[in-house]
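User: tokens in, sequence out, please.
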């Protein structure tokens, strides 16, 4: 009941201070997953705490401010930057849901969840986050929370247990619908893989990586003065890096290797000062993780890959063949959400643990979905970086799409990815300057 109680308090507070309550929700959402729900009854779609909060804030926003062209959340000439790709994605999802293999009634709950967590959540973040106070509140809040997540992961490693994950799994009344990836204790060559408060080690590492990227962007590259404890931020970033190592996953390494380019600023003196301090700290802590170097080297070495195990090119090719075979049953718009519920295990077995977002897109959404997702990639790594004159947007977008294409990202908090992009775009618009006046950036 504790998760539901906190959500209820946030909802009540939103009637007094809508913006602050929404920002608190963004912080709280870090801990929410499918197992944390308001409703979990056999035969009834799961209603998660996250989705309920999104619906409440969306309803409250559109009732209070949706038709107000002025007011505190006016667009002031700046269109929602993801409008076009989200419209195209929504069309794809809608058609696939209408003609879903499980029927419209069986697929619509997953469809609504997708709309809420991707489209509505991102739109709300874009409209509501609009000044420097919001940025400082979020940076301070996420620093405290990721510090907690990091300390909790140290506890998880020390005890080889995750009581929070066990408790969250127990919240689902229908045990067959509980999501529990475990910690892969029996992974040959890797051993216990930590995930902190998140669902899965891969997603956990990416979430920590997103914190590092966005924090160091505003600490090292952004030309604004932020009143925040910089030493605490740096310490949390180092702890987050240690947590990435303890996930024993390749995906987060690759994500961070690309993402670091988003905050590199060779013309800034403070960049070199922070790098010097971080290098000293890394020299001090890396000896404690020397036994994990093979996982990092497996990104580049076939021998290291064989030693640590996990998915390889042959496994991905086999999954691609299965995904294309299933897509051939409905090539244009796919089989829709929850198609696995209706297909025999023998056919779909090769898709289990699909190591790429495309192994979901192909059978679920077909050719139409492939084109929609390719357009979103173009939009985030080409269109938006050019429009906002920001290489950082390119590197954050490229980090996500490359990793999501090469492996699955279970446990990743997707809203953090869109939040990172939005914060960089808002910075480029001048929203976080002392004047708070945003430049008009039209997205055509």
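Assistant: Sequence out:
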């Amino acid at each position: 009941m504790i998760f539901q109680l906190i959500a209820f308090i946030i909802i009540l507070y939103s009637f007094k201070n809508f913006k602050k309550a929404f920002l608190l929700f963004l912080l709280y959402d870090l801990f929410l997953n499918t197992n944390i729900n308001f409703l979990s009854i056999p035969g009834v779609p799961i209603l998660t705490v996250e989705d309920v909060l999104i619906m409440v804030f969306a309803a409250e926003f559109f009732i209070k401010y949706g038709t107000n062209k002025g007011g505190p959340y006016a667009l002031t000439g700046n269109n929602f930057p993801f409008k076009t790709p989200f419209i195209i994605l929504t069309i794809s999802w809608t058609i696939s849901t209408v003609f879903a293999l499980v029927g419209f009634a069986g697929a619509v709950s997953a469809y609504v969840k997708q709309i809420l967590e991707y489209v509505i959540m991102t739109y709300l973040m874009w409209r509501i986050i609009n000044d420097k106070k919001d940025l400082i509140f979020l940076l301070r809040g996420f620093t405290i929370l990721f510090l907690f997540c990091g300390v909790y992961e140290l506890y998880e490693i020390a005890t080889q247990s995750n009581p929070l994950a066990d408790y969250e799994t127990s919240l689902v009344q229908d045990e067959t619908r509980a999501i529990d990836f475990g910690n892969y204790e029996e992974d040959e060559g890797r051993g216990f893989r930590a995930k902190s408060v998140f669902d899965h080690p891969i997603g956990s590492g990416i979430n920590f990586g997103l914190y590092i990227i966005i924090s160091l962007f505003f600490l090292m590259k952004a030309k604004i003065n932020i009143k925040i404890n910089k030493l605490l931020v740096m310490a949390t970033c180092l702890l987050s890096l240690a947590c990435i190592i303890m996930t024993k996953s390749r995906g987060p390494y690759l994500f961070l290797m690309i993402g670091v380019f988003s905050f590199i600023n060779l013309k800034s003196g403070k960049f070199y000062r922070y790098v010097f301090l971080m290098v000293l700290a890394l020299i001090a802590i890396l000896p404690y993780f020397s036994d994990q170097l093979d996982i990092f080297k497996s990104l580049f070495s076939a021998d290291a890959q064989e030693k640590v195990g996990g998915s390889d090119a042959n496994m991905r090719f086999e999954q691609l063949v299965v995904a294309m075979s299933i897509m051939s049953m409905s090539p244009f718009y796919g089989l829709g959400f929850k198609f696995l519920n209706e297909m025999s295990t023998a056919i779909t077995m090769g898709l289990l643990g699909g190591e790429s977002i495309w192994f979901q897109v192909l059978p679920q959404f077909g050719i139409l979905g492939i084109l929609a997702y390719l357009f979103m990639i173009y939009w985030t790594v080409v269109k938006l970086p050019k429009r906002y004159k920001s290489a950082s947007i390119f590197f954050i977008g490229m980090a996500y799409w490359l990793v999501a294409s090469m492996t699955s990202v279970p446990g990743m908090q997707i809203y953090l990815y869109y939040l990172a992009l939005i914060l960089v775009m808002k910075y480029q618009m001048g929203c976080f300057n002392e004047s708070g006046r945003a430049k008009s950036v039209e997205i055509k």
